[in-house]
Design goal:
mainly beta, 17-stranded mixed beta sheet, five-stranded parallel beta sheet, 2 helices
């Protein structure tokens, strides 16, 4: 324990069976180029409200590293399993299994330093992705926190955005997303794009919005059951069509294993406002190749003469015209 303005100078490598705790205003750990290994826990400025100084840094090997009230980057030669930040900032140049950010912390991943297991981004913290993120576990973003994906892909078992706590959270600049379970709560919102996949659960509550932006004439694929597709009365999945020519779709739902399709279910969700569609040219709900699709209607596919189209649009408005042009394809 190095407390209240004290200094520890390492004259050799430090191998602890227990913990190293450096805390208190003005406390200093001078590693003098010597490594720290074996410690079950290393605390650097974690306790109290002041950061500490680490000088002449060398490698740190520990299952659990706790950093508070300062900036501390993980070096490429560090070996840390679980990394915790509170009111702190870090760039990861080596990978960890678990990352937790609390109290307005900021962490940035890199191609050489990523997270492999689980991430908790809490209490107004920010995670910036500097590379694709592939988690074997879950990503939690909660209590006013943000993840800026920087256009990088995200793969996870579970994705929670604003689900816990009492305030909204967000994820921005998402690349391709693949997750088994997606949960949004507390008026949170994310935007998915063409090519994204949710395998088993979509659950939206508390005024949350899942926006699906059509990209490259495709949208979101969902492979779950109806019991695992839940949107409460305050929330919605918003489908935004952008293409005006060629075949295009913005949502497809894998048909039930027992047979049949989801046409009636989707119709009911659209009618209730659980699914909201923005499409200047209307939409269709149809079934083919093992999926029930929400397709756009390209203007080139509309059989009426242009003069009739203009009259209809002028008299009804875009929203009413979309409803007028809505069709259903029968299963072959």
């Amino acid at each position: 324990n190095v407390n209240s303005g004290s200094t520890l100078n390492l004259g050799a490598a430090l191998n602890l069976s227990g913990s190293l705790n450096v805390s208190g205003s003005g406390s200093i750990l001078n590693m003098n180029g010597n490594a720290i290994t074996g410690a079950n826990q290393v605390f650097l400025g974690w306790n109290g409200s002041s950061g500490v100084t680490v000088e002449n840094r060398a490698d740190i090997t520990t299952p659990n590293l706790y950093v508070g009230n300062s900036t501390f980057n993980l070096n490429a030669t560090d070996s840390v399993t679980n990394f915790y930040l509170t009111n702190a900032t870090s760039t990861l140049y080596s990978s960890v299994s678990y990352l937790e950010l609390d109290n307005g912390s900021t962490a940035t991943t890199t191609s050489g330093g990523n997270v492999t297991g689980n991430i908790n981004v809490n209490s107004g913290s920010t995670l910036n992705l500097g590379a694709a993120l592939n988690l074997s576990g879950s990503l939690y973003v909660q209590d006013g926190s943000t993840v800026n994906a920087g256009g990088h892909a995200l793969t996870s078992n579970q994705l929670f955005v604003g689900w816990n706590g009492s305030t909204s959270s967000s994820m921005t600049n998402l690349g391709q997303v693949q997750t088994n379970e997606l949960y949004l709560g507390n008026a949170s919102g994310i935007t998915l794009h063409g090519g994204d996949v949710v395998n088993s659960v979509i659950d939206l509550k508390g005024g949350s919005t899942l926006t699906v932006q059509e990209t490259g004439n495709t949208g979101l694929t969902f492979n779950g059951s109806s019991s695992n597709f839940t949107i409460d009365s305050t929330s919605a999945m918003h489908l935004v069509f952008t293409a005006s020519t060629g075949a295009n779709w913005d949502f497809r739902w894998q048909d039930p294993a027992a047979g049949g399709n989801w046409i009636n279910t989707i119709d009911a969700m659209i009618k209730s406002g659980e699914i909201v569609i923005t499409s200047a040219d209307g939409y269709t709900v149809d079934n083919r190749n093992g999926y029930t699709y929400i397709d756009g209607i390209p203007m080139a596919a509309v059989p009426e003469p242009a003069s009739v189209l203009m009259l209809a649009v002028g008299g009804l408005g875009v929203g009413a015209w979309s409803r007028l042009r809505r069709k259903r394809e029968r299963t072959a």
